[in-house]
Design a protein that fits this description.
With 409 residues, the protein is of the alpha/beta class. It is 34% helix and 19% strand. The protein starts with a strand and ends with a strand.
Length: 409
Amino acid sequence: MIRRITNARLREREGLVAIDLDGKGRIAAITGMPPAAQARSDGAVDEIDAGGGLVLSSFIDLHLHLDLAYSLDLVPENKSGTLVEAIGLYAVAKKDFTPQSVCERAVRAIESEIGFGTGAIRNHVDVGRTAELRLCEGILAAREMTRNRIDIQIVTFPQDGVIRDPGAPDRMREAMRMGCDVVGGIAHYERTPTDSQRQIELLFDLAEEFDADIDCHIDETDSPESRCVEYLAAETIKRGWQGRVTASHVCALASYEPVHAAKVITLLAEAQVHVVTNPGVNLHLQGRFDGYPKRRGLTRVRELMAAGVNVSAGQDCIKDPFYPFGTGQMLEVAHLLVHADHLSSRPLIEKAMDAITINPARSMHLDDYGVKIGGRGDLVVLPVDSVHEAIRCRPRPLAVLKGGLRMNK
């Protein structure tokens, strides 16, 4: 176990510090290092010399589909590049997926995320009619195999809808009993707005039954007619579920006219709904029906942040029919976010880092997250001296720690 990190640089603190960890893998002390002590290490095996590098709490990927990971070559080509075609192609291919094959691909993706410094993941597992519970079994097995290396929340995701897939509520309920943590949804995928609203009501019924949070795929479309997120926010207030609901994607918000967009953003803030954007995947999937100028496809990240909405960024997909790229490197996700919504000033670059660290920690209720006394020893040591340089260069970590134990070589 690592007991000390020396010559470390922290966000919003001048000078170099030493971070001491206790025997339980918690941060016991953070002390300034006098100049004479800097650049000097005794080479102890339980010590890491950060060399003036930036130390952060491990990155958090708040939106990922591990059951999809590395399935690109198992599914026919998505020739249109659209979300709708990807869903259709995957619906056929996943009939042949086994729990073992899903587990193997998921573990590969988890190991990639860990190598890039990720310490926690929220994963959406498909429990639609052609997936049944086989994919869920595989993801639960992958979580068990890696439970000492990373924290994983699992969301029951009804890829084929809820109203249009009448068996979905029962499968979601069984998946929660099997060990899933969060109730998922895909409200905009229903056939009518009325059915979308009904799905949202059913998600809250299920969340109340299991006293669980909700993370719903919602308005993942360019259409300004898709208005599901406002119903989600209103139902959050009605049910008293403030702070326990996440709206994923929310792409249509970018296409609303400004007055209505402002109303919805205010409602999201009132309902304390968390929002997660997936810049790589939505830059890739959205705007496919546009001529020029093309929409960027993301939600209104800057406006949401300015209104006090807790906004995170996720990887979403790793080499699958929805997105042929992705590695699980959260610094790359932050880098894309900066470009996609012009988060280029220094304060906004810091907010992009927040979107892969402290913001998703709030969504996952990780109260002991952070480089602070008593905080988890889940840390990443980067060979750069600032957040700006971390997002600009996107380096491999010098060290990745989980509870004080080193996860990378």
